[in-house]
Amino acid sequence: MIAMDATDRAFLRALVEDGTLSAGELGRRTGLSQPAAWRRLRRLIEGGAIRGRRVVLDRPALGFSVTVFLGVKLATKGRVSLEDFERAVTAIPEVQTVQHVLGLYDYRLRVAARDLADFERVLRRRILTLPGLGQVDANVLMSEERRPGPLG
Amino acid sequence: MQIDDTDRRILRHLLAEPGLATADLAERAGVTAATCWRRLERLRAEGVLKGQEAILDWRALGYEVEVSLRFTLDKTDPRAFDDFIAAARMVPEVLEIQTFVGRVDVRLNVIARDMGHYQEVYRARILALPHIADIEALMHVATIKDSEVLPL
Q: Which residues 21-40 of B are in CB contact (within 8 Å) with A?
């Protein structure tokens, strides 16, 4: 775990809002010189605090107006079936996220589709044919917001 | 706004690697740097490209537990969704708020430092949220795939 002070947290808060901020801009906002800000930023990246960047898009404008979350339960369990399932499900381009979870389901999938008809096609052709698939439960996303998280 | 194949190609490469410099992005998309820059500017101006956010690794920041909490709300109160979401925004450990049509009404992604801390957040903050009819918890074990790539 990486140790952080108030300035590190301010850096992360700013980067969660805008991941493209330069070390110079981060420095200006926190009263650090550009090289000092750069060293801090490097430390945060090398320490693994920042995993990467996410492009924020207007999905409907690009023709993707439907996002569905699927809760998936496998019919058969065992190491091999988990691996087969994971390999097959990650290869589906419409499946954006695959999370292995504990609870009511085994996996949680985020599926991007153009519309409900397109989602039905993905569901029938790609999801329902996955190896080892058991029960599937679908929830259509209406709204979504990301929060900055506990950064003080 | 009309999106053509060149826009889609640029976006595909940008989504796959958000940190790319415009010149590299142009090369991958097979367009000149000037075209690439112009296209990105237009996508930004039209609001298709909304920006970039840093993705934090909460595990590296000392948050070992991640739970997906799925809520059914008591919808006899017309303000149930608004009240619930406004209150959920006040909980720093909440990373995502999503609303759905389906069996689940709202989902919160909640992180905690460890199980003890999770219990604390759950009892003191989550159970205090208004209009809850039912809660289901899914504990995250692993993220197998997490991509923002759309099958453009």
A: none
Q: Are B79 and B109 in a shared domain?
A: yes
Q: pLDDT of B140-150, one tens digit each?
A: 999 999 887 88
To the nearest whole Å, the CA of B30 is away from the closest chain A CA by 20
Provide the percentage of residues in chain B whose pLDDT is more than 70: 100
Asked whether residue B86 is domain-assigned, the answer is yes
Q: Is A51 helix (H, G, I), strand (E, B) or coil?
A: strand
Phi, psi dihedrals of residue B120, rounded to the nearest 5°? -65, -50
User: What Rg value do the Cα atoms of chain B yield, rounded?
Assistant: 20
Residue from B61, B115, B121 to probe the interface with A (highest A Cβ count within 10 Å): B61
CB contact (8 A) between residue B57 and residue A51: yes
pTM for the model stands at: 0.89
Give the residue among A19, A38, A150, A148 at the shortest CA–CA distance from B61.
A150
ipTM over the 0.85 cut-off:
yes
Range(s) of the domain holding residue A101: 61-140
CA–CA separation, A21 and B53 (whole Å)? 10
